[in-house]
Each structure stands twice: as structure tokens, then as C-alpha cells.
Amino acid sequence: MAGKQPTINAKIMKEMPQAMPYDQLLIALAEGKEQAYKQLFQQYWSHIYGVVLSLVKSREQAEDISQEIFTKLYHNRQQLKGVQDLQSYLFIIARNTSIDFLRKKVLTTANLETLIGYFQDPQPLPDGLLEYKELDQKLKDAIAQLPTQVREVFIKSRVEGLSHEEIAKELGISVFSSKTYVVRALQRIRKFMESHDELAMLLLLASLVAQQQQFH
């Protein structure tokens, strides 16, 4: 069965034969044996799914990501032979895969615009949540690092709410240049946030985006 991933469904998987000892399991997995793969799935599905769900907060997405993780484990099964602590190894994979998912989901141009608008709201930030203030500061830092004219156009557009026509007239540039500067600004802000996307920030970003989307 080399080269073909065993198909396993957690809901219908039957009772396994007597479990293989840990060392034998890793060797059998590396050899691509279906029984070993089923045992891995049975023993560690709940662990991986639980880690993923705690981060992405969606059962459907957690199931998809967990299935993806087991697929990757099968395709990279040769690496398992040298693993000393399989549970810790799987935890790291589950965490990193979830973070990659959150990064792709949250750090989009549309979401960043939503968040910038959120922090421009005159209403005070939630009391006692230092993370909100830290996120607000990161967005301000991202804007501050923009080239001078790009930053000026971006603030007038996204913070002050001016149209591109109004910005062009006020700054003596073309409407096309105004639009181009805003696009560049959002690209740079996204790159800045990607380089400062600690897990806590990603989780807060995901939570804020979900809250804002409920009102649109």
C-alpha cells in the first residue's frame, strides 16, 4: 500500500487490534502500514483536534485542519522514526498548522481595513484588556513605518475618510496616485503585521474580525 494514504473516518473506525508498543508503532508508520496509521489516528485524533479547536474556535475548520495534519503525517511518515515524544511532536504540528490557518484567515487586506476602522472608533477600548491596546499600538506602528506620502494619503483616506478626489486636490496628486498609495500602504501594513503576529495577537485579531463581521 505504499504511496496510497489509508482512508480513515473517526466516526466509523472499528475497534483496533491490540495496540503496538510505541517504538514498533513509529517503525510501522514509517513503513506505511495501515494498522499503524489507524492506531495513530485512534490514539491521537482527540489530542490534535482539541489543540486545533482551542485555537481556531470552529468545529468544522478544526476537523478539516486535523484531517490535513494526519494527511501530512502520512506523507512525511519517514520522519516519525526519530521522534522521541510523539504527543509533544503532534502538539507542535497542530499548533503551527492552526497558526498558519489563522494567519491566512486574519491577515487579509479587507480584515486589516476593518480593524483599522475599529480602532478609529471614539468608543474606549474594553476595560482591562491590555491585548487590545497592544494590538492598537501595533497597527499604529505599522502605519507610522509607511513612507511619508504613502502614510499621509492613507491616513486621509482610511482615518479621515476623504475620497480619492478630495485627497488628490488637497495634495496636488492624481486620483490614480492616491489609490495606488492606499494599496501600497495596506500591503506594507499587512507585511508588518505578519512579522509581528504572535499567537495572542492572531487570536485577538480573529476574535475582533468575527465580531465586526456579525454587524455587517
Distance between the termini: 50 Å
Largest sheet: none
Residue-averaged pLDDT: 78
Query: Gyration radius, to the nearest Å?
Result: 24 Å
Helices and strands, in order, run as HHHHHHHHHH
Shape: elongated
Describe this structure in words.
The chain is 71% helix and 0% strand. The protein has 10 helices and no strands. The chain has 216 residues and is mainly α.
Secondary-structure blueprint:
Layout: H1 22-30, H2 34-56, H3 59-75, H4 86-106, H5 109-120, H6 130-144, H7 148-159, H8 164-171, H9 175-194, H10 199-214
Short description:
With 216 residues, the protein is mainly α. 23% of the residues are buried.
Short descriptors:
216 residues; elongated; single chain
